[in-house]
Design a protein that fits this description.
The chain has helices at residues 3-21, 33-54, 60-82, 84-98, 151-156, 214-217, and strands at 27-28, 31-32, 104-107, 113-118, 126-131, 134-140, 148-149, 168-172, 175-189, 192-202, 210-212, 222-226, 229-233. A hairpin with a 2-residue loop joins strand 12 (222-226) and strand 13 (229-233). It is elongated and about 85 Å long. The protein is α+β, with helices and mostly antiparallel strands. 25% of the residues are buried. The chain folds into two domains: 3-82, no CATH class; 99-233, Acid Proteases (Cathepsin D, subunit A, domain 1, Beta Barrel), CATH 2.40.70. The strands form three sheets. Strands 5, 6, 7, 8, 9, 10 and 11 form a seven-stranded mixed sheet that branches. The mean pLDDT is 77.
């Protein structure tokens, strides 16, 4: 196989990755995803035909063989685009089963996001969620009223903890403490996202894990615990 062949293979793989990574955003590299996919397939065909024209020493049998290989590759590209959501769901389920707290995101027939959490080995439900631009591991506590960030997690999320006023008395596992109110620009768990979310921040050293309480669950259409799975519906 020549260098041009491997260049085309690399470009095909890159297109596949971009299409799958685009998810349901509707755009890829700033272009509408369908337009990008059509242009990518047309471009690959153009490169293939151009490569065949430039390589004039290729026999008819070799040309047919190469065209057959590329036909399979391009059909695989089209299949990957069509079934990209299934691939994303599989990857999400695979990760969720291996890494405690990883959200398993799916889209229902009504177009709403559904996130499933698998119970961790410690017996609790955990959730790895995004807070602003940071990744935070929460302990899911449907009996808690608020979303409570530990001091360290709040600072990691870009909150100016030094400017907070810790004047709200709370009862923690370590005894009586004080917390401060704040607003989270973004809070997202899998495909479920909320903005301008009211939360509290615990005093430094009082909590070693953040809590995801009813302030988040009340924004959902429903949530259900069944066995070792907690299902959240947007």
């Amino acid at each position: 196989m020549g260098v041009r062949f491997w260049i085309l293979i690399g470009l095909t793989g890159l297109v596949l990755i971009l299409l799958i990574a685009s998810g349901d955003t509707g755009t890829t590299l700033g272009f509408e995803t369908n337009t990008f996919a059509t242009a990518a397939v047309a471009g690959l065909w153009a490169l293939l035909i151009g490569s065949a024209v430039l390589n004039r020493g290729t026999s008819i049998a070799q040309a047919v063989k190469q065209l057959s290989i590329w036909l399979i590759i391009i059909l695989a590209l089209m299949a990957a685009y069509v079934f990209r959501y299934d691939a994303q769901d599989f990857a999400s389920r695979f990760t969720g089963g291996l890494i405690p707290g990883s959200p398993i995101s799916t889209v229902g027939d009504d177009g709403r996001e559904t996130v499933t959490l698998v119970r961790s080995r410690n017996g609790h439900f955990e959730a790895v969620a995004g807070v602003n631009d940071a990744s935070v591991r929460f302990l899911v506590d449907t009996g808690a009223t608020n979303i409570v960030l530990s001091y360290a997690d709040a600072r990691e999320a870009g909150i100016d903890v030094d400017a907070l006023l810790f004047n709200l008395p709370v009862q923690t596992a370590n005894g009586r403490a004080f917390s401060a109110t704040t607003r989270l620009e973004r809070l997202y768990l899998g495909g479920i996202e909320r903005s301008n979310v009211l939360a509290t921040v615990a005093e430094q050293g009082r909590m070693n894990v953040s809590l995801l309480g009813q302030a988040f669950f009340e924004t959902l259409s429903s949530y259900e615990k069944r066995g070792d799975r907690l299902t959240l519906r947007d």
